[in-house]
Amino acid sequence: MAAKYLISECLEKIFSNLLENNNNRYHKSTKDIYSCTLVSRHWCCIPKSEVEQIISTAVSYNIQKLLPNSFRFNKKPSSSFDISTTFNYVSLIRGLVFDDTLLSDSLLFHFREIWLPSYIPDDKSQIKFSRISIPIINYLLKYILEHCNDLKILDLPFIIRNNKIIFDMIESLIYEDYNGKNKLKNLKELYANSVNEKKDLYPVLSKNICNLNLLYNEGFDSVNSLCRFISLQKNLKHIILSESVICDINNLERRDYNSVFNSLSTQCESLQALEFKYLSFININENSLKSLCSLKNIKELKLNECKGIGDNLISWAKNLSNLEVFEFAKGYHSIVSEEFLIQLIKASSNTLRKLVISDKRRGKQLSQLYKQISIYSNSLMYLDLPKIYPDELIKIFESCVKLVYICTILSEDGGWEMNIRELGNFIPKNLQRIKFKEINEYIFSSKALKYFFENCRYHNGKLKYLELKGSFTFGQHWFDVAKEFDIELKIQILKLKSP
Length: 499
Prior knowledge:
Strand content: 5-15%
Helix content: 25-40%
Structural class: alpha/beta
Strand order of the largest sheet: 1-2-3-4-5-6-7-8-9-10-11-12-13-14
Number of strands: 14
């Protein structure tokens, strides 16, 4: 029973320790949560209607400006807090993330400083400590699951070690009230991990979730139920399919994803964003290829370290005529068809706005691709490329006139001292930000940079920002040159790893 009265204290401490985390596999900001929850201990002083109004009308930076006005009109003293009203705001929660920490005795013990009230002694062994932590956390989970409502986001990001606990959680969320409604009926985003599960989550979820906008799935040990779950959705707009990062490379090459690829055709009308991570196309069959080709409305495609991207996928590339964003990261030891990339660039020539290619380019590899970019990608506004040579960059500057941002690596043997001066004569007028990566040795002087800036200004360029990143040391005179032209210069010096 004591656990019930500790919840408020624990939540307050947890909320005060919320931090941004840039390492999430699919990043979701906590800024808005942080702004709201820091004042959560005061919300029980404010009528619920006022809290709802504050949340619905305020954004993260002005919530705290609105709250003092509410306190000013509320006469209720803090000493008369009712434990039940402290949790009124739980009903306003629209997203749940079940972090692995909640179900791990060792992690709860290790991170006890960020959630356990200071007046509770923590100098016990982990075994003894679990007698305190488990009842508190279990009550916290039970209370949140019981009182949250109309969830829009559900995230199950970890490999579940205790199936009973997580299935009890899911059961409480899909339980129908007297009106026949459950908490997941209007769910819009689901993030799930189906790696080595003893019991499959998707059959349970399939009965209650059919209106998703976004699905993230990691692992394919429940491939049949995953395919059925995808097929049952009525309006999927964004799908992210990822193999587990711990999957053996040899096992990956033998994986058969055809049933998953086939299921995507059921969302051909609604699907607009598609992301594949660490998957293999080596064993793709004709039906699966037809399924991919049927996805006519794809506007955003991301291929992250996938294997088997060969000429057999060219027909798919030719059908991506509405693509606005394409991001491609080549995996280690992967062989990628340059023709596939070229055909994709050609097919999306009228619509492509953002192009990101990550690859360890050797010599003049991909030279035909760079040529096609300069010919067909006239609508590009954002461009991120691997190593580039002066003639290639000049051609891109001449043709991609709508560019606002470009990021690339200047070739070591490109003769940039003279070419960087001339580059300013071809700079797109709308280009505002440039980033040159991996500058690990002398490539051009600050004098050459000054000529570059002068030519930019002479041709009415709008350049505002230049970033140089690498292990080469730049002196103060570089900043002086940039200041002369009112351009922000950022230099990020990286230390090279010792062999």
